[in-house]
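From the pipeline queue, job 12 of 40. The input is one protein chain; the requested action is below.

Action: predict structure.
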Amino acid sequence: MERSVRIAVVGGVADDLVGALRQLPLRPEVRCFANVCDDTDSLARYQPELLLVQLGPEPAEEVGALRLLRQLWPALAIVLVTSPEGELQQAAHATRIGGRLLLYPHAPGQLAAVVEQALQGSDRPRAEVFVDLAHGIADEINNPLMFLSGHLQLLRAGLDPTDAARRDQLDAAMQGIARIQASVDRLRLLSVAAGGPQRRARVDLADLVQQAIAARPRQQPEQAAVDLPSAPCVLDGDPEQLAAAARAALEFADGLARGGARAELSLLLRAGIVQLRLAAAGPPLEQWRLPQTFEPYYPSRLLQGQSHGLGLFLVQTVVLGHRGQATARRTGRAAITIDFLLPA
């Protein structure tokens, strides 16, 4: 494992939130400080990569201290913790200091997502924005799609059995509708997965990756390498969501391979954590922007002609919903490693 991330918790942050930080799969090093103004020297000695701060009732002095820290230490990431009632007021403070907001109590996966986005310097909206959009698009498309599918089925049923050309045309149209339906189903799954597992069972992630390998298209010349352990990688989770995540990860890795990169998907069980790692290198990744790794359809900008724009976002959503972590880092000029970590 890489060196633990250092996180400083400042102010009256709830104890269970501090505990949740320490229980993140990457096991960050977490220290608590009373006040950003009084503990500036101690914070400077600790040198955290992330400050998690709950401001007091009169925050002007604390905001000034945080702005000074950011000027002296530009790489420092700051997250302000607030209740939903204080969101508007705290959003203004977060904007002034170049930080992010964490609403407490937080939804499943929200803590890990905010921590990762803050450390990566991502300026994307909260994941809920994309999830709500996915749900809305699925609802918009589904009704007219079902109407069209029903009419095509009726047309096909009424065809002259000898009219092979017309039947082939309708079959092609039905296949297109099936592909659209699969996309709608993926959007629905994505919107549901953000809320965490819908049902729980003991799931072997290695077996799910094997199933995804078996479902690969037969005529696919470029494929990612896959390295699976001999022992099971069992965790407690939603079988449908985890199976979709395994398929999406493999499809994305294969897409990178088709785009001219060297890609490998590996699975490892260590210290109570199941790690699904995607390592890739090659010219298509030279311009990759880490903060945008998990944005929907960002990969499509750089890897043209591939239909995996939702792949990484789907895997991240499932992993965060299972109280895991998704991290991305650059390992060379044209190389990235993406880790999905789940509690075993």
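Job complete. The first strand starts at residue 6 and ends at 11.
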